[in-house]
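This section describes the prediction task in plain terms. A model, or a person checking by hand, is given the sequence of a single protein chain and must write out its three-dimensional structure as a string of tokens. No templates, partner chains or ligands are provided. The sample shown here is typical of the held-out split.
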Amino acid sequence: MMNIAKNGMVSAVLATLFLGQSALAGSIDAEHKVIIQVSTDDPRTQKIALNNAANLQKAYGMDNVDVQIVAYGPGLGLLSKNGDNADRVESMAMQNINFNACANTLAKIESKKGKKPALAKGVEVVPGGVARIVELQEQGYAYLRP
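The expected answer:
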């Protein structure tokens, strides 16, 4: 009986640590939590996504909103170090906008072109863009797709 209780306690501790670690990716304390999906290479749509993020911070205050921009597929160009938006992405990352680049897309590009694209400073690589969106929605994030 004692062994079962210990195993249950160990499982609870491990679950707490795991959940705590995944929550570090976003701000647990933020009143508002938003995902913005970018999966298109359309410059206008990418600009709208960045504008949405900036406008959310203006509306709610930087400390009251956790914005996660998740880019995958053709949308990954938004996060490229050599892209048209590189300076803006780097500036916004320093202002607590979180940028997530899909590792699956990076691997696909590498297999086609022989190397991965360089990403702007402040961009985090996540295992999968779509999976990241699902995980964040399970944590209560609102979903936007411009």
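For orientation: The chain is about 45% helix and 20% strand.
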